[in-house]
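Title: Prediction job returns without error message
Component: structure pipeline
Severity: low
Priority: P3
Assignee: unassigned

Description:
Job completed but the reporter wants confirmation the result is attached to the right record. Sequence as submitted:
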Amino acid sequence: MLKRFYPRHYVSSAYMIPYEKLYEKGIRGVIFDVDNTLVPHDAPADDRAKALFGRFHHMGMETCLLSNNREPRVAAFAEEVGTKYIFKGNKPSRKGYVKAMNLMGTTTDSTIFVGDQLFTDIWGANRAGIESYLTKPIDPREEIQIVLKRVPEKAVLYFYGRKRRNR
């Protein structure tokens, strides 16, 4: 039952993923959550985020933001980094992930998802059949509804870690 929430990969930061190697292996699109994955909650795109998306553009890799947030937040960030976006994505529903792949012209085999929450980001990516990367949250200060979700997330990650050690 818990396996549906397990990420394929667990990394310390979205900025540490070897995107160039993934491109060599056929990945052509990356779907990102925004808040606490790329920047702290409600923060504008910083130089690091802009440089990351610049790398994608240079490689010819497609990108799309998929957020449950409202359009003003997501559109402003997307404009700053030069990417497509979907707001009010209703994660963990598959629909937003499928729509993002359609916008990018990619498939489940050529797309990855990067996000910081198990019960929305990762579960949705897994449901859509997309390889998932869970990142550690950038900022520990979060809205109360997210703080409350972090408690059961810790339990799931405990069992995820045990499973990985027992391989």
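Comment from assignee: result matches the submitted record. The chain has six helices and six strands.
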